[in-house]
Amino acid sequence: MTYLDKIQIGVDFIEANLGNDIQLNNVAKTAGLSQWHFQRIFKALTGETLKTYIRNRRLSCSLLSLEVDDNRILDIALEAGFESQEAYTRAFKSLFGVTPNQYRQIEGKKRWLKKIQFTPDYLRHLNQQVKLKPEIIEQKAMMLVGLRTTFYGSDSDKNNISQTLPALWDAFLPRIKEIQCRSDPYVAYGVVQPTTENAELLEYIAAVEVSSLTHIPDGFTAVSVAASRYAKFSHRGKPTQLDSTVNFIYSTWLMGGIDWHTQGPDIETYGREYQPNSDESVIYYSIPIQ
């Protein structure tokens, strides 16, 4: 079974439960993935968050109910999973450009473009891109020391990467010389992992490798990365474009079904080739595989 198959299982679960309360972790569990990895792959593949897909599919399904004049908009809203008619109306207008009442007055409603259900053929179509070949490495165990924060990634409706991660690096780099026993003075790492298995909230640590944990500066944290097999990809371009490369990794290479993400931490590597704000900059992004 490929990742594409697993995403389709999740989509099928959503379609079967559009009239019920859908918890994102249950969608992922049905597909046999953690919530973070399901959401990350879904966003990379489709370009939208899982929560947005569910909301828009419910809104599209509600169009049929609106075409029956006897159905109260409040009842339609509740059936679509909204807590009030007002919330439903706001979301409806945001998606379709008109209110539910205005939609009822429009002739030829069925010509409207609706939010389609993702099918296996459609997901496969989204996945047809140029392949990116990584270097497969045996990553040794590492002891890291750095600064930690939590954030919501681009696969979440709460995405706050641009507010959170640059600020962390701005705080970390001026204090990097406080860290003793550094293994390589020219390399830094960004470690990314979910805070819990079924959470959108992620943990990010800006760090360097050390040979000893005898002295950890105030406010810093230590983290151990276990030895593992990694697929190491190179991102050439400005750091602000890194998320596009990560999306490409998750939506294209990982979808091949040859290797599987272990659900361990992803690692960003900033070495001698890294140049802030340069199109020639190189960052390495590695995912643990089995």
UniProtKB/TrEMBL annotation:
Instruction: List the InterPro entries hit by this protein, alphabetically.
Output: AraC_E-bd, GyrI-like, Homeodomain-like_sf, HTH_AraC, HTH_AraC-typ_CS, MarA-like, Reg_factor_effector_dom_sf, Tscrpt_reg_AraC-type_HTH
Q: Which residues form the HTH araC/xylS-type domain?
A: 8-106
Keywords of the record, alphabetical order, are: DNA-binding, Transcription, Transcription regulation
Database matches in PROSITE patterns? HTH_ARAC_FAMILY_1, HTH_ARAC_FAMILY_2
Q: Which SMART domains match?
A: AraC_E_bind, HTH_ARAC
Q: Name one Pfam family in it.
A: HTH_18
Report the Gene3D superfamilies cross-referenced here: Homeodomain-like, Regulatory factor, effector binding domain
**GO MF term (any one):** DNA-binding transcription factor activity
What name has this protein been given in UniProt?
AraC family transcriptional regulator
The organism's taxonomic lineage, starting at the top: Bacteria, Pseudomonadati, Pseudomonadota, Gammaproteobacteria, Vibrionales
